[in-house]
Recover the amino acids of this structure.
């Protein structure tokens, strides 16, 4: 089983780099067009040149321009309610519909 570990690690890195390259928006790709990076990762994946090149130079990495943490980039910025209990109108309608509180 241990002799298959290097092959599995190379395969995992290859798959990760390929999926990361496909999911990266075009404006975050550096030095070459995205299609060329996909071809490089696919053709040179067995010798780790393509995936390592993509991970090191192909994608813009680092802190975002607005200084927010990665978890904060995907949060709802107030455009709508996250959950019903965050909506004051929903909470008010619960009070109005509950006969016990209307005594």
């Amino acid at each position: 089983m241990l002799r298959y570990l290097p092959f599995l690690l190379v395969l995992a890195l290859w798959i990760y780099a390929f999926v990361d390259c496909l999911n990266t928006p075009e404006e975050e790709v550096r030095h070459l067009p995205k299609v060329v990076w996909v071809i490089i990762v696919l053709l040179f994946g067995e010798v780790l040149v393509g995936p390592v090149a993509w991970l090191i130079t192909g994608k813009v990495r680092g802190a975002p321009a607005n200084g927010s943490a990665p978890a904060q980039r995907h949060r709802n910025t107030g455009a709508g309610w996250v959950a019903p209990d965050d909506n004051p109108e929903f909470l008010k309608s619960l009070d109005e519909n509950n006969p016990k509180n209307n005594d």
